[in-house]
Amino acid sequence: MSRKNILTGSPWEDKMGYCRAVRIGNCIEVSGTVAIVDGTIVKANDAHAQTLNILERVAKVLEELDASMKDVIRTRIFTTDVSLFEDIATAHAKYFKDIKPTTGFYGINQLVAPEYLVEIEFTAIITEK
Predict the structure, then answer these.
(1) Cα angle 55, 57, 61; round to 5
(2) How many Cα atoms are found within 13 Å in the side-chain-facing hemisphere of 110?
């Protein structure tokens, strides 16, 4: 089976030695992804907007691997504040309400920078079409 890596140009990819996503065969793993906090559309205090930003960006990565959000079978959601569950869950449901992947929701001490409230990992399996 061949391997395809998706790189996004992030300086962290070379610094840390990782890529955004890897596809081998029909299996795709997407690295933990945080939002692009721009201070206008996505603010450091808006978990809903951060979650939507992550989901939008990962949808594009999956397209590059000939997959879609419909192929996602698992998400792992990490947050620095579990009281934001409703905001994060509502955004997650915008993409996954009908797909219903398995998921985990984890409260953690911190993410790589204080402006990040949410980080999500994804697993997708492409089924035969």
Answers:
(1) 110
(2) 4
d(CA 109, CA 8): 27
Would the pTM count as exceeding 0.90?
yes
Instruction: Please list the helix, strand and coil fractions of the chain in percent, rounded to the nearest 5, in that order.
Output: 35, 30, 40
- CA-CA distance, 47 to 75, in Å (whole number)? 16
Distance CA 124, CA 50 (A): 21
**Whether the Cβ atoms of residue 23 and residue 2 lie closer than 8 Å to each other:** no
Length of the chain: 129
Distances (CA, A) of 99 to 6, 74, 104: 24, 10, 15
Q: What is the pLDDT of residues 53-93, one digit of tens each?
A: 999 999 999 999 999 999 999 999 999 999 999 999 999 99
